Amino acid sequence: MRTLLAILKDSIRESLDTWSLRILFGLSVLGMLIVLTFSMDPLPAELTMRQFFLVYRESLPLPVMLDSHKPADLDPEGRVQRLNVGEFRLVSVTQLDGDTDSPEGTYRLVITTLGIESPANGEKTFRAALKYAEDFEYLRIESIEELPKQNDRVQYAVTLKGGRNMYRVWACYPVWILRLESPDLESVPMGFQVFAVVTLVMRGGEVLSALVGVIITAFFIPNMLRKGSLELMLSKPMARWELICYKYLGGLVFMLFVNTFALTGIWLVLGLRTGFWANGLLLMILTITFFFAILYAISTCVAVVTRSAIAAILVTVFAWIAFFAIGFAYQYYGPDASARMGRNGMAVREEKLPESGFVRGLQIANKVIPRIGDLNKLNALIGFTDFMTGDLRNIAMFDNTNVNWTESALVSCAWIAVFAGIFALRFTVRDY
Amino acid sequence: MQVLETVDLRKNYGAIQALNGISLSVKQGEIYGLLGQNGAGKTTLIKVLLGIIRGWEGKAMLLGQPAGTADIRKRVGYLPEDHQFPDYHTGYSLLDFYGELLGLSGAVRRKRIPEMLELVGIAPRMHYKIRTYSKGMKQRLGIAQALFHEPDVIFLDEPTDGVDPVGRRDIRETLLELKNLGKTIFINSHLLGEVELICDRVAILRKGVMIREGDIPTLTKQKGQFLIGLAPGQVFPADAIKALGYAAEPLGERWEVIVTESQSIDKVLDLLRDKGLQLRHLVEKRQSLEDLFLATHKDDDGRSRRRAEVPKVVNLVKEERP
Question: Does any CB of chain B come closer than 8 Å to the CB of residue A231?
Fold first, then answer.
């Protein structure tokens, strides 16, 4: 244990001394600043309510991105059926309590029917239309009161209480990085903005972090293997496998620190800026580090065999591209291919491809390589769960029906174990 | 007590025989020097003993146990040749790191590190990054890390390389103090003068084979060559001695008499006494360790012979100039 701690401390010291950690921390701070410059200023309740009804009426895919629905709620094109409140028009909104931009306040809405003449039918239809919003705890109908007809149209005064998930769909100024305004959008729901940020962090940040991490850590092992340096380490009372495995762990701890700093920072900035605590980001520290562990096992193995940092970087990046390509091909052409992203982001069933050598090859390759695609799905699940409600499984990007999590985890862990075994064995038997 | 023992030790790198049947033993409290040209197998021998290289044949024991085990390495200090310390460390943090690997407690490390760095003369710079150290300072740090955990056996590969004369003297004194404390020290060095000053015994390796081994007085003794000096004003009877069958050549104010295997110096001494000459100086001639080393490698590839001839050529050229 003392040896492990000594080597971990040494790895941290090594990374602290070089520019590597500063570069990664700098990039992380840059990411936090970018998130900080997102406006996300909430709009007043009236504008939000108008948008809420507008979104409902148009059945835009936006709420689909925000939340998912059971298949029964959707038409064949993936549009939300039961949420259509197009028979109503919002006349006015008055906030009864809470701040003007508070999602959980109480609101009095005056609505008028567009085609419904019977007051009883109007109330029933309205309640049915907002059932979805109640189910997902956006809004709760406190009361519906019939008002005198206006221009022969039935009017209601509806008292709504914001639910605990209302902030997900609360409209915000669509001002993005560095307060650049979007010319097309008047407002964007909070949830979607955070969704965009987390997507950016998850897709861009993960790739950037892993790539920079691979480049920086690729030098750790070759530096230790330099003549005159290695002899000093090998003359110490520890087994060789311990030394190399602990150095590997040192690289992982280094990346764990960096990921923790970056993601915790972004989580904090996002939370303080929006009140939206995307806790999944914190879990992603582990998944992103796990992904790096797979790549670093390859890098360490190549470094032990070749003593070259450049070779380690090239082979690792090549392996990464290969994993991605195989996973991508398997998802779309493999024997289990069944889900693709529809134009509205919904899962569309496809016919299975016929058996062929290519498909069989893909199947075998996919069995033995680390499941990067599954890891991305896992990241999506834990990253988006905080601001998504409903049944996530029915959006293709969250479609986990074909994912065997146990197998996926075992294959990825086995991959690390095999490479760790190879580099430990090689390091143990080689003369230096 | 034998601290180190090898018997018929062999190590091949492919077709190259790095060690070819090395047998040696070192007692506790000895300073043992290992000499040889580059590639003679000196470093390989140390690496075998420390378990840094594998796949050797023969027997190698260190401190009564098979060499190269982790347990044994706890009791061994090692300074490799051309060492490269991680330059992100300071002198202090490096010793702290190595001390932790060696299993020393934090309290012991905190106490010993400043003491050790003081001993080798770099305490004032102990909190500076190693990359700011001179070569001599790095060498002193190397000595410190090898001695820091108070090992029983210390392997030093070129310990005074790059160190100034004062530093070399300090290191010599430190090693002699350690010897007095019963530590066993194993030195590889090209600085034969240094080795001669501190080593009790030396071995000379050539192409993986031990060609000479013994204590320094024995090795440097030139058997059969005597220097004889008489009282002032007396004439050395060279002709009479030559008539007895001995070779005799003047060497400054003295004479060098060469005694063959079948002869004895006693006849020469008897002659001098018979002639009433007063003997003032009689020593069996010695050579320096460097002379011995060059002599043992003379027939190897001719390099040492050529090197010895260079001054003569230069002299001749000088003489020809007007």
Answer: yes
